[in-house]
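Memo to structure team: turn this sequence into structure tokens by end of day. - J.P.
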Amino acid sequence: MREVMTKSMARNIFYGGSLFFLLIFLGLTYQSRQYIINTSTNAETLTESVAAGKRVWEKKACINCHTILGEGAYFAPELGNVMTRWGVNDDPEAAFDTLKGWMEAQPSGIEGRRQMPQFNLSDEEIRNLSNFLLWTNTIDTQGWPPNDAG
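Reply from structure team:
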């Protein structure tokens, strides 16, 4: 190799290196996208009730206080794994009953404690929200949240 690099040699190194790293970047992006599509979201179990529960979640702006899978406000507990924490993730009817009891008991009125407002949800809305939280509990989050309480 010559001691002095010519302009054309420098240009070839630049373009070759740029192309090399662009191909690596595109390959890793494709691999990451395929991994996410194939493993994280449990799309085959999506039902109309789960979608309706997501609409309740959005309409009542639950994300303004709660996090779900790490996204949202940190005022109230993480809800992505709430059904596991309550021990009802295998029984949809128990999940509905537990969530209904919790929602109807709010606000608790305990002095000095954060209070959840009373949303006056119908049984159907609570069932849909329960199904949404059950579905969210099945997503492969790759170890997130890092602790049980979120």
